[in-house]
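U., I forgot to send this yesterday:
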Amino acid sequence: MKSVPSLPRNAPRADILAGAAAVGVALAAWALYRATLLPGFDFGDTGSLQTTVGSTLITPRVAYPLYFAIANLWLHMVGGDPARALNLASAVEAALACGLSVLVAIELSGSIAAAIAAVLLFAVSYTFWSQSIIAEVYALHIGLVALTLLLLLRWANRPTTTRLTLFFLAYAVGFGNHLSMVLLAPAYTLFLLLGAKGGWRSMLAPRILLLATTCAAVGAAQYIWNLRALWYQPQPPSGLLEALATFWFDVTKSDWRDTMVLHVPRSMIGDHAAMYWFDLRQQFGPIVPLLAVAGLAQLATQDARRAVLMAVLFATNLAFAFSYNVGDAHVFYLPSHFMVALLVAPGVVLAARLTPRAILPAAALTIAYAGARAYRDFPALDRSGDTRPADVISHLTAGLDDQRDILLTDMNWQVANGLSYFAKVRQPAIAHTRAPDLLLYAPALVTDNDVVGRAIALTERARSEIDAAYGPLLPTMPDPRVVVPPLAERVAGLPAGTPYVLCVLKPSRDMSLDEDDLAAALRVLSGTAVPGGDYAVIAGLIGRPPELAFGANLPFTKQVQLNGMGVEVRMESWLSADTIRRMGFGQVVAGRHHALIVERGISFAALDRTGRAIRTAYAANIFSAQPRYLIRTGR
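Result:
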């Protein structure tokens, strides 16, 4: 078989074409992410990042100095709502990452067409897309991985000190965004040793070690920003040694690392393997991973060192994510997805070798496949109309004003981060604090505020803590300004024949289903019981037997026709491992509209004839409407 000739590396015309391809893919990715961008703030880590942006004090616990330096500059440039600005920054970073990835894929395959195909597959992959439309660190992380990989491959083409310095600097600076850059070190080190012009010993020469150390120091200097913040805290460190100890503990998340890294129970290893195969198919379908394996074989025949580099990069990142016992492990698989996508480029070249001059048809077929996946997933990943976090917090804080109320909270940490943003940016007149932090002083707090006419409002968990600690000494009552109807009431009142979808997923440990309320709601809808399984769906027309009633312990996709309208129910999570899913645990797409983001617990949507949701309801999850209480006083 004739080998496909590589792209001339130093030809000006080839460089222009490669640059144009990179820009084109970046613009296409930007248009996709911009169209599906989350419009405001979110819960979880996203809410924390959105709250922190703009601050000049970034503590070691928060970390991410490079991320926040870029974010603060971006916020200064674009202004407006910090949450939306930071979401937009992720879309820009993701688009730039795709552009850089095209250049990397060209280096690996020698084909611009194959590189475009490979990177478009990654651009529309489920997890990367979902992380590119919200404020998160992963789009920038992939961009930095692509940049360092490109600089390393360019150094291998022409090993000069200047190129090596640029690589060292980019790699060191990358640690300012995410410490998982360390996972690239084994593969990068091995590649440098194998590719050194004067043999592996030349990479250990004092001059090279000094250069690497200097670049590492430059990268580490970013964290002086975090270290400095310790002296502005209420209890500053007593000296530099204590500050450094606190800094290291917080930046490296030592308390999490000790309980999560390499702590997946042996009984769960098989389950995690099944989860990864589910996750890989969610990104690319079943065929693309096989094409990536073929790409690795093609790369091995062309340049064994590059094949080793890509194989070790994939294996190291996969092993870390596989062994990381965390509730959102799927996002840590992103670098391994990236390596799979890059290997598709030489895989396309290998496929083209079966027929002379078939590189363009092979690449075109791969691009068409990426386009089909984008078309399929666009409605499910479109968060441009997602205002659920704002709706939940607006309901919880309705009627509150710091002149008349103080809100004591103890909530799921994801919701708490959303409240922090809301009270900082949207409604600064809301005074709130955590109930556990002042439980010992609650009676004095109530008395002092009662004197000036200020009420004490409580979230549900805060109320339970006050009741447990003080009982009748601090009696509580429902706050009449916040009403949370039962689920049965929220699904009632819709005309008979209205299309609906009700999903019931196994709730997280801190939530519980109200089985009686769920049964009452089902009597209103159809009178059908919930099917068994961790994932269950009932879909039909109100007042009639359901058209779909299905349950299973593994994720599934089901289609159903409701009044002639196509409805797709997609379970997009792995409940045995996932406790956090920024994109939700499933999706309902009706008539090409994103009708419902499915969460753990109960998720409900009633639909109009076009597939748009006319009413939604959640229960037993973080998007449930929360009740509020008041401490009764003598007034």
